[in-house]
UniProtKB/TrEMBL annotation:
ER-bound oxygenase mpaB/mpaB'/Rubber oxygenase catalytic domain span: 17-248
Top-level taxon in the UniProt lineage: Bacteria
Protein name: Oxygenase MpaB family protein
Organism from which the protein derives: Nonomuraea longicatena
Record-linked InterPro entries: MPAB/Lcp_cat_dom (IPR018713)
Pfam family, one: MPAB_Lcp_cat
């Protein structure tokens, strides 16, 4: 008989669902790329081993697919994508200042993980998601499971806001803006559209405010390191982020899911069907399950 443990990696009652279903995750995803870029070796690994420069949106979609599968997918789906990511990373190397590094070096994997999940948590809370401090810590503990899928040991991963803050404090002396870092931020503020999206070029100027919003949500110390845009009042940034969340959150789930890759949409549909079979009220989709009244009786 099916159970919640076999239906989805993280149950609807988790803090992870509250965070990952928040539409401010789009801002958080781009912000995480900007933050990741401050680690010289990690950034050179991206430029040397991916098509990020040619297809940044593709990388964002693949990240969204991974996050979705290790949240809403079945344990089998999550393990499959984790195994694929580990296999890819195992074969890749990074050339940096005369040395060679493995992409799956635990320090690099941990940096990417922490830049991502801290961005997700910080941005969605600032965007209006009312999580208590206890729930925020619980989210980071839950994300240790996601870290395990890419090859990290959960006990080595920050599992609270205090541990995450201490981690960034330790890492800051190792961070700097290299040529690829600066180019990444400029690119994310004004991206070159891939061939399949060139028809959207007339609307490209509308993207800059979004890219700037992502930049301004970075920690103050990260913005000082980049110095790409002049500082603005952070109260205005918070207001803009909340407005973005309200507008994006008003889009119904069916059309909203069209922005994802077909494989991601199939995975999300499968999660909804499995939860429906377990008695959850999926009448308002996965987003509706962040309301405790739609959870299955215990």
């Amino acid at each position: 008989m099916a159970s919640i443990e076999t239906a989805v990696v993280q149950p609807p009652q988790s803090a992870t669902w509250q965070v990952h279903l928040n539409r401010c995750m789009w801002v958080a995803g781009v912000r995480s790329l900007m933050l990741q870029a401050l680690h010289p070796i990690a950034m050179r690994g991206v430029w040397q081993n991916s098509d990020f420069q040619e297809d940044p949106f593709g990388r964002l979609m693949r990240t969204a697919d991974f996050v979705g599968r290790v949240t809403f997918g079945s344990p089998a789906e999550a393990e499959a994508i984790g195994r694929r990511v580990r296999d890819i990373h195992r074969s890749l190397r990074i050339s940096h200042e005369g040395g060679t590094y493995r992409v799956d070096d635990p320090e690099l994997l941990l940096w990417v993980h922490c830049a991502e999940v801290s961005s997700y948590l910080d941005v969605v809370r600032r965007g209006g998601l009312a999580l208590t401090g206890h729930q925020a810590d619980r989210y980071l503990r839950e994300q240790r499971r996601s870290a395990a899928y890419v090859g990290l040991h959960p006990e080595d991963v920050p599992g609270s806001r205090a541990e995450m803050a201490a981690y960034f404090e330790r890492m800051r002396p190792k961070l700097r803006v290299v040529e690829e870092s600066a180019a990444t931020v400029r690119f994310l503020l004004w991206p070159r559209l891939p061939e399949r999206l060139r028809r959207l070029s007339p609307g490209k100027p509308l993207y800059f405010p979004f890219g700037a919003l992502c930049y301004y949500t970075l920690p103050a110390w990260a913005r000082r390191m980049y110095g790409v845009l002049p500082e603005v009042p952070q109260a205005g940034v918070t207001a803009a982020l909340r407005a973005f969340g309200l507008v994006a959150g008003a889009v119904p789930e069916a059309p909203y899911h069209r922005v994802f890759m077909p494989s991601t949409r199939r995975m999300l549909d499968g999660a909804r069907d499995r939860l429906g079979e377990l008695g959850y009220d999926v009448g308002k989709g996965l987003k509706g399950l962040t309301d405790p009244r739609r959870w299955a009786p215990r």
